[in-house]
Every structure is written in structure tokens, then in C-alpha cells.
Design a protein that fits this description.
Chain A: Keywords: mRNA processing, mRNA splicing, Nucleus, Spliceosome. The complex is a heterodimer of chains A (87) and B (913). Chain A is mainly alpha-helical and 87 residues long. Helix content of chain A is 67%, strand content 0%. Chain A is built from 4 helices and no strands. The two termini of chain A are 30 Å apart. Chain B has 913 residues and is mostly beta strands. Among the domains of chain B are: 227 residues, Methylamine Dehydrogenase, Chain H, CATH 2.130.10; 321 residues, YVTN repeat-like/Quinoprotein amine dehydrogenase (Methylamine Dehydrogenase, Chain H, 7 Propeller), CATH 2.130.10.10. The longest helix of chain B is centred in the last third of the chain and has 18 residues. Chain B is globular and about 110 Å long. Classes of the chains: A mainly alpha (87), B mainly beta (913). Chains A and B meet through helix 2, helix 3 and helix 4 of A and strand 14, helix 1 and strand 23 of B.
Chain lengths: 87, 913
């Protein structure tokens, strides 16, 4: 692989990572990955009316409250990020 | 292997609703989404009944739905945000009765994704632009305009993205004709994601951001952003331009705030709470949905809280500045997903779960003694207003639309011993839940039943004039007599109608403009408007045996199988055709279609013969009475009926169908080619054990067929689809269409010696349902194997048991008395008593929310036919039944044992069972 090509692939990946949130890279931590999974899941539940119904029945809350709670929970679904090790 | 699925009952819950003038007429319609179905509803302003105009499966998920109108336009378009990664603009086409796709622009991947727009939609109130947003980051703005032919155009998308930002809600701000502006509730999570201490997340504030679309530069800019104190869940646009002060109302937990750009200070008002509420005191209160009503001179908002209480919100203005927000308790309805206030004064509530309602707004709540709360009233921080919920005062229920959503459990069984099994369903949530019993069949409402002096053979209705709106006479034929009843405010016998009463009747009809015809075994009696009577006598010893008639033509079969044809000439005279025609076998039945609009005659006669054939005979003058086609039948025919179905309401004709009822109980439906008279494409259906009799009636402006065997069925064309549905009614013998002022589209029928007037209203419905209320969300039920009774477990999270509810009320009453000073004891006692005697049923006002981890549960034994509960076991607080089953053990041979599984959770402090 020539140097130019390698550079090209690298920039393509960077482009993807900035365009599609959650695209992984070599240094993705467990916490980042998990947070993204949760946010994706919550966004999907928000988009599917049947899943909102399901949660509203289980929790016995209004659908508007369920939606509000879901967006609220997207802020930090898995707690604060771990301390970055000093390197 | 093939899997086949057929939808018996389409979804009935509503996820989104919006209103507008979609058909372009003065009437307002409501567009609703039922998850994957788009439906257009029209509340009839006179009767208040909600009619479904169109229902379309879209094969996707509707996530947002909005109506908009171009400036100066008179027709609203529909914008749909879905999981398709596209923005779709639809126009309702009333002549085709369909949604026309005006635009469909792709912007992203399909699926309900985090960063693909479709979740939120916002419209510029002047209809110049639309913003479509995702849960995170992406927002696109499309500019809407007209081209030279006044067709709607859409621009390429303009991006208004912001990374690391969640969106709670989007609305268009009403800025009149300045550059379109959108307000967005956002939350930036970038800081929180990199702060390991968690402080940043704690301090992350929600912000309201205004995006301006610069129409000159074709560019979207973030105009202004401000962080908010409380987290809000949605925004309401305040009318602007010449109609109001512009800006937005921010609905957040416990507060509603008015905000606008410029010098306007924020105006904030707490959301009033119910006085003496049993809810968990830690809970906040949010508004769940809102509706805006705007006229030329005023505007107000209706907003509904989580408990279902609707508040009327008005703004006090000083020139262009808002000085005060005023809230007034309006009424309490079931919690809605969307509310629509219509110009005709109706309020449409699409419930989250359970039936949907249409209310009439009888009062605007302007001059009553209900206290009004204002942002100007002094209150300590954290303090709020209180109000007392009550029964409806301003709203009047006019219609209810059944909704099964959510169906939690269902079993199919024939517990009522009716041959066809019933569907038993557990529906709904909390105190509005129900057990519903569904039976295949159209609901029939009985308008009148009257006894007759004997057992009649047949019944017809006729109009005195063809252009009359309603029928004038009911004619009942007995073995040796005919009875004529006139339809007025009451139905009574008349003798001056001109009909011959001393003979049985074979058929009667309104002939031409204003004449009547009665066909009886010995002749044809033609009664002119001035009561002159022309008689045609059957020749010699032969009598009329069968006949077919419409508004211009009469065909009779004489004994021996000879056909005689009559047609009305322009002077209104009935003339016999010169030739007669001999049939190869005995005539059993005949039918002739109605005269198509603008034509002289119906061109086809269908004749059913004893050799098990049906023949189509031409009535065209060029080849009159010559056979055109023939179909062999599997059994002897009993009855024939030619109908024109599938035409539009304005009289455009559809397809001709020949319905053939056989003596073995089978109904055949065959397409009759309207040019050649050929028969093709036969459909077969078994209706019942008795020979099938067919009757042509009118339904919703079109023709329909009533088919009677051991059960009665109706075959009709509704919303571009054929329906053949049994009527949920006892068996009938003979029927005719019936139209009067009280019942514009009914049926008059005979059953033994009674005459019945019936109305069939819920066209399109496949099931008719009976509903029995339950207390908590039903989780599961089993059928007792021996008695057929149902055992239902009902369990709710976040709820109190009846017992604890009572305890809490007594406790609150005590506190009330304790809080009062010594000289107020009497008053406090009165208040406490009033509070304890208050009757606010949970099914209307909602059950109190007990907080997380609080469970209430019961087991109920119910008779599914009567709906009577014969036994209830109430579990203690926090015992939750989750499953049940019947078991038989080998040592216990006699009875089935009911096994119920429940879980128990420790009660929190301060509670005891």
C-alpha cells in the first residue's frame, strides 16, 4: 500500500466518523461504545410508536412523559465517562 | 411453505392527528396516523358523527404529521415524517378519494435512526418553509413555494445541523412575513461526555434556539440561543404578525413560560395542581399536548396535563408585549396524544389508549366561577396554584370512536354458543381498560319494531316523486292483501295511495318522475301523480308470476315462462314491447339494474331459470329480448340482483355486478360487462343454510346488496374495497331500503309478523364489540374449562390499591383538620367530609400515580356474556399478579386448579396493608 492511499483511507474514515456519530475507531472505549448503543436504542424507541406504547403501559406513565424521559436519559445513559489514563 | 396473513381489524389507536381543509371545501377534516396507516376523518357538523373518508396503508412508520397551507391558499397539504429517510408531501384528492403524493425528497437512510430526520416536523405558520429534524444533530429546512402554474414546489434542503445536540421539540415561530423562524428545544451533551466527574452532566442545561431562514441568502442561521432553568418537553407557537405577539410558550416540568426575541421579558406561570391529590408528592407535572384556536380577533390555547386536565391559556397584552399568562381549568378528558380544535366548535381528542372522543365546545369557560390563575399573582418560589377537578362543564360529548389499543391478551372461543366463535380481548390501560367481546358482523341499531296483523311476505318502500329526499310509503304484501303505510312523523296506514289493497303484490316502484307502479298477479297498475290509474291486465287465465322493475322499465314473466317487456315513453306512458319471448325453462327469478344517470334504460335483464342457469337478455331497442350470455350454476337460483358498485359519490357509474343467490345458501358475485353483457370473474361465498334472497339498497350514496339466508349479510363497496359482512342481528325474511328524516339510510325488514326499521351506521367495521370495564390494566386471562367463565388478572405499576387509596384519603382528611386553627374546626370538618365524599371516578380522572415500585393488582372472575363480575380478589399493595393458568393434577381428578403467580415487593415506610 502506498503512502498516499493510506492517507486517503484515513481521511475517509475520519469523514465517516464525523458524519455518522458512533462510528467506531481503534481507540473507542467500552464506555463510549455502550453510550452510543444506548442512545441509538433510545432514539429508535422514540421513533417507533409501538415501543412508546409498550413502555407507557409498563411504567403506567403518559406517552409524552416516556418520550421526555427518553431524551433526558440520552444525556448520560451509562454514567459519567471513566477517568482517562495519563499517558 | 407460504405464510399468509390477513388483517381482520386495522389498527385503531391514533399516534398523531392534525386538522385542516384537506379537501379544499369549507369543511375541516382531521388527518390521523395509526402507526402505519394514514386516515382522513370528517366530523359531520350537523350530526357530530365522525366519518372515515379514506384509510391508506403506508407500509412504514409515521413519526410526525403536520398540515400546512401556502400563503393565500385555501387547501391544506399534509407533510409526513416517517422512517423512510424522506420528506413526503401529500394532497387529498376528494374526487379520486386518495392521497396524491406531491413531493417526495430523499435525505437519508431509512429506519428510525438517531441522526436521520423525520422525528420532528415544524412548519412556518405562513407555509413558506418546513423544518424536519432528527433526535440528534440533523435538521433540514425545505422552502415551499408555488410555480407559474400555482403548483407546490419544494427547494433542495438547507442544513441547520448542530453536532452533539439532542432535540426535544421543534416548532415554527409565527413572525408574520419576515424571514421564517424555527424554535428548537436542544441539549448539548459535548461537555458531559468528556467530564469524568459527572458535574458537567449535572449542570447541562437545556437551551431554546431560534433558527432563521434567510430567504434572501437562501441560508439558515442560528439566530439566538438561551439556556433554560427547567427542562421542557414541548413548545407552542404563539400567533404573530397581525394576529398576536409572536414568540413561543415553553412547556416544562411544573411551569409554562412565554419567550420571545427582543425586549420581551420572560413570563412564567406554574402549572396548577389538583387540590388534595393522592399522587406521589415528588412528581412534577408536564403538559402532554396542546391545541391552538385562532380567530381574527382572538386566540387561545388548550393544553392538557398528564392527568388529563385541560387548561385554557390566554395571554394578556400591552401593545405588543406580553404581560401576563392566564390559565383556567377547562375540563378533564382522557389523556390525549393530540388535540384538534375545529372551526365548527368541536374538540377532537385522540386518546393515548382506549376510545377516541369528539366533544362539542359548548362554552369557552369565559364567564363562570372557575378561578383563573395568572403569572402576575405573587407566589413563593416552588409554590403553585391549586384547582378542583370536576365533571365536564364546557365540553359536550358528541361521538366516540372505538379503539382497541392496546390489546394485551386475546383468545378466540365460542363461549356464547353462537356457532361462530367470538374474540375475547383485554384492552386498554389502568382504570380505562376493558374486556371486549368482538363478534364478526356489522352493528345494527334498531330504530323501530312494530307488529303487523299477520305474517307478511314482502316489503318495499317508494317515493311519491323521484326527486323526493325521503320515502313516502312502505308497502307490505300479505298472502291475499297489501297494506300501505305512509311515512311521516309516525308511520300509519293509508288507503288513498292508489295501490290495490285486495291482492298480494309482486313488486312496486316509483316510475318516471312522479308515478307509481304496482305489479300484482293479475296485472300491472300504473298510478299517475293525479291519481289516474292505468291498468294492464294479464291475458286470459295466465297470471304474472315473476317481475323485475326499475324507474323506467317493467319486465314480467307470465306463467308458462313467457317474458313481456314494458318501457316508459317520454309522455310517461308504459308501453308494451311488440314481441314476447318464451324461455326454455321456468323463470325462477329476474333482476334489472337501475337506470344509469342520463340514460333512457338499463340495457340488461338477468333471468334465473329452473335449468340452473342465469341468462342475460338485452333490453336495447336494436336487439330487444335477445339473449346475450349465459352462466351455468351449481344449484337452482333463488334470487338475482344487478347493482352498480364502485362508482364515485357524484353519480359516476362504476362496474355492474350480477349477484346470484342460490337455493343452497351460496352467493355468487359476477362482473357484468356493461357493453357486451358478458359474465366474468365469479366470486363465491357461503352465507347460510337457507336460500339466499337479495335486495338492492342505497348506502352512502352508492348501491349495496342485502343478502338474506339463515343470517343476513351486506355486500357493499366502501373506501375502494368490497365488503361482505354479516349483520349482527336476528335472521330476517325480506327487506327494502328505507329513508326518512330520522334515518336517512336505513333498512325496513320483515321478520315473522313484525316490521323492523334498522340503521347500519358503522360501515367498514368488521367486528361489533361489547365492552365491559375493568379496574387495572388486564395482563392475562384464562377460560374456566367447565363453566366458560373468564379469570382475569389485572395489575398496574405506579398505582395504589383501593384500600391504600382509602387510607390515604382518610389520612389527608385528618391532616386537613389538624392544620386548621381551633376556631376553624367546623369549617375544616366540613371540608374534610366533602373531600371524603367526593366522587371523581378514576375511569375519567385517572388513577393517582403512586410512584415507582408501587403495585396494585386484582383477580376477577367474569361472565363473558353478561359482563358480570362474580368474584374479585384484591391483592395487598405491592403484590402483583403476573401470570395464571389452569392445571389438572393426577391426584386431584375432579377439578381444574387455578394457579396464579404473583410477586411481592416490600412496602415503603409509612404504608401498611
Amino acid at each position: 500500500m502506498s503512502g498516499a492511499e493510506r492517507y486517503n483511507i484515513h481521511s475517509q474514515l475520519e469523514h465517516l466518523q464525523s458524519k455518522y456519530i458512533g462510528t467506531g475507531h481503534a481507540d473507542t472505549t467500552k464506555h463510549e461504545w455502550l453510550t452510543n448503543q444506548h442512545r441509538d436504542t433510545f432514539a429508535s424507541i422514540l421513533g417507533h410508536p409501538d415501543l412508546i406504547n409498550f413502555m407507557a403501559i409498563c411504567e403506567n406513565e403518559t406517552k409524552a412523559r416516556i418520550r421526555f424521559n427518553l431524551v433526558e436519559k440520552m444525556l448520560q445513559p451509562c454514567g459519567p465517562p471513566p477517568e482517562k489514563p495519563e499517558d | 411453505m407460504h405464510l399468509y396473513n390477513l388483517t381482520l381489524q386495522r389498527a385503531t389507536g391514533i399516534t398523531h392527528a392534525t386538522h385542516g381543509n384537506f379537501s379544499g371545501s369549507k369543511l375541516q377534516e382531521i388527518v390521523v396516523s395509526r402507526g402505519k396507516i394514514l386516515e382522513i376523518l370528517r366530523p359531520d357538523p350537523n350530526t357530530g358523527k365522525v366519518i372515515t373518508l379514506l384509510s391508506v396503508e403506508i407500509f412504514g412508520v409515521v413519526r410526525s404529521l403536520m398540515a400546512f397551507r401556502l400563503t393565500g391558499g385555501s387547501k391544506d397539504y399534509i407533510i409526513v415524517g416517517s422512517d423512510s429517510g424522506r420528506i413526503v408531501i401529500l394532497e387529498y384528492n376528494p374526487t379520486k378519494n386518495a392521497f396524491d403524493k406531491v413531493h417526495q425528497e430523499t435525505f437519508g437512510k431509512s429506519g428510525c435512526r438517531r441522526i436521520v430526520p423525520g422525528q420532528y416536523l415544524a412548519i412556518d405558520p405562513k407555509g413558506r418553509a418546513v423544518m424536519i429534524g432528527a433526535v440528534e444533530k440533523q435538521k433540514l429546512v425545505y422552502i415551499l413555494n408555488r410555480d407559474a402554474q400555482a403548483r407546490l414546489t419544494i427547494s433542495s434542503p438547507l442544513e441547520a445541523h448542530k453536532s452533539n445536540t439532542f432535540v426535544y421539540h421543534l416548532v415554527g415561530v409565527d413572525v408574520g412575513f419576515e424571514n421564517p423562524m424555527f424554535a428548537c428545544l436542544e441539549m448539548d451533551y459535548e461537555e458531559a461526555d468528556i467530564d469524568p466527574s459527572g458535574d458537567a452532566a449535572q449542570n447541562t442545561k437545556q437551551a431554546i434556539t431560534f433558527y432563521e431562514l434567510d430567504l434572501g441568502l437562501n441560508h439558515v442561521v442560528r439566530k439566538y440561543s438561551e439556556s433554560l432553568d427547567e427542562h421542557a418537553n414541548f413548545l407552542i407557537t404563539v400567533p404573530g404578525g397581525s394576529d398576536g405577539p409572536s414568540g413561543v410558550l415553553i412547556c416544562s416540568e411544573n411551569y409554562i413560560t412565554y419567550k420571545n426575541l427582543g425586549d420581551q421579558p420572560d413570563i412564567r406561570c406554574p402549572i396548577p395542581r389538583r387540590r388534595n391529590d393522592l399522587d406521589d408528592p415528588e412528581r412534577g407535572m408536564i403538559f402532554v399536548c396542546s391545541a391552538t384556536h385562532k380567530t381574527k380577533s382572538m386566540f387561545f390555547f388548550l393544553a392538557q396535563t398528564e392527568q388529563g386536565d385541560i387548561f385554557k391559556i390566554t395571554l394578556e397584552l400591552d401593545e405588543d408585549m406580553v404581560t401576563e399568562i392566564k390559565l383556567k381549568y377547562f375540563d378533564t378528558t382522557p389523556v390525549a396524544t393530540a388535540m384538534c380544535v375545529l372551526k365548527t366548535g368541536f374538540l377532537f381528542i385522540s386518546s393515548e389508549f382506549g376510545n377516541h372522543y369528539l366533544y362539542q365546545i359548548a362554552h369557552l369557560g369565559d364567564d363562570d366561577d372557575e378561578p383563573e390563575f395568572s403569572s402576575a399573582m405573587p407566589l413563593e418560589e416552588g409554590d403553585t396554584f391549586f384547582f378542583a377537578p370536576r365533571h365536564l362543564r364546557n365540553l359536550l360529548l358528541v361521538d366516540e370512536m372505538e379503539s382497541l389499543s392496546p390489546i394485551i391478551n386475546c383468545q378466540v372461543a365460542d363461549l356464547a354458543n353462537e356457532d361462530t366463535p367470538q374474540l375475547y380481548m383485554c384492552c386498554g390501560r389502568g382504570p380505562r381498560s376493558s374486556l371486549r367481546v368482538l363478534r364478526h358482523g356489522l352493528e345494527v341499531s334498531e330504530m323501530a319494531v312494530s307488529e303487523l296483523p299477520g305474517n307478511p311476505n314482502a316489503v318495499w318502500t317508494v317515493k311519491r316523486r323521484a326527486d323526493d329526499e325521503f320515502d313516502s310509503y312502505i308497502i307490505v304484501s300479505f298472502v291475499n292483501a297489501t297494506l300501505v303505510l305512509s311515512i311521516g312523523e309516525t308511520v300509519e296506514e293509508v288507503t288513498d295511495s292508489g295501490f290495490l289493497g285486495t291482492t298480494p303484490t309482486l313488486a312496486c316502484y316509483t316510475l318516471g318522475e312522479d308515478a307509481l307502479v304496482q305489479i300484482y298477479p293479475d296485472g300491472i297498475r300504473h298510478i299517475r301523480a293525479d291519481k289516474r290509474v292505468n291498468e294492464w291486465k294479464a291475458p286470459g287465465k295466465r297470471s304474472i308470476f315473476r317481475c323485475a322493475v326499475n324507474a323506467r322499465q317493467v319486465v314480467i314473466a307470465l306463467t308458462g315462462g313467457e317474458l313481456v317487456y314494458f318501457e316508459m315513453d317520454p309522455t310517461g306512458q308504459l308501453n308494451e314491447y311488440t314481441e314476447r319471448r318464451e324461455m326454455p325453462a321456468d323463470v325462477i327469478c329476474m333482476s334489472i339494474g337501475s337506470v344509469p344517470q342520463g340514460e333512457q334504460r338499463s340495457r340488461f335483464l338477468a333471468v334465473g331459470l329452473a335449468d340452473s342457469t342465469v341468462r342475460i337478455i338485452s333490453l336495447d331497442p336494436s336487439d330487444c329480448l335477445s339473449p346475450l350470455s349465459m352462466q351455468a350454476l351449481p344449484a337452482l337460483p333463488e334470487s338475482l340482483c344487478i347493482v352498480d358498485m364502485g362508482g364515485s359519490e357524484d353519480g359516476q357509474s362504476g362496474t355492474l355486478y350480477l349477484n346470484i343467490g342460490l337455493q343452497n345458501g351460496v352467493l355468487l358475485r359476477t362482473v357484468l360487462d356493461s357493453v357486451t353483457g358478458d359474465l366474468a370473474d365469479t366470486r363465491t361465498r357461503y352465507l347460510g343454510s337457507r336460500p339466499v334472497k337479495l335486495f338492492r339498497i342505497r348506502m352512502q350514496g352508492g348501491e349495496a346488496v342485502l343478502a338474506m339466508s339463515s343470517r343476513s349479510w351486506m355486500s357493499y363497496y366502501f373506501q375502494n374495497r368490497f365488503h361482505l359482512t354479516p349483520l349482527s342481528y336476528e335472521s330476517l325474511e325480506y327487506a327494502a331500503g328505507f329513508s326518512s328524516e330520522q334515518c336517512p339510510e336505513g333498512v325496513v325488514a320483515i321478520s315473522t309478523n313484525t316490521l323492523r326499521i334498522l340503521a347500519i351506521e358503522k360501515l367498514g367495521a368488521v367486528f361489533n364489540q361489547m365492552s365491559f370495564p375493568l379496574e387495572y390494566t388486564p395482563k392475562k386471562f384464562v377460560i374456566h374449562p367447565d363453566t366458560g367463565k373468564l379469570v382475569i388478572i389485572e395489575t398496574d405499576h405506579n398505582a395504589y390499591t383501593e384500600d391504600i387509596k382509602r387510607q390515604r384519603r382518610i389520612q389527608m382528611a385528618e391532616e386537613m383538620k389538624e392544620a386548621a386553627g381551633p376556631d376553624e374546626q367546623e369549617l375544616a370538618q366540613e371540608m374534610a367530609d366533602a373531600f371524603l365524599n367526593e366522587d371523581l371516578p378514576d375511569s375519567i380522572f385517572g388513577a393517582p400515580k403512586a410512584g415507582p415500585g408501587m403495585w396494585a393488582s386484582i383477580v376477577r372472575i367474569m361472565d363473558p356474556i353478561e359482563g358480570k363480575t362474580s368474584f374479585i380478589h384484591r391483592f395487598d399493595q405491592n403484590e402483583a399478579a403476573v401470570s395464571l393458568a389452569y392445571c389438572k393434577f393426577s391426584i386431584q381428578h375432579r377439578a381444574a386448579i387455578l394457579v396464579i403467580m404473583f410477586v411481592y415487593r416490600q412496602l415503603p415506610e409509612g404504608f401498611s396493608n
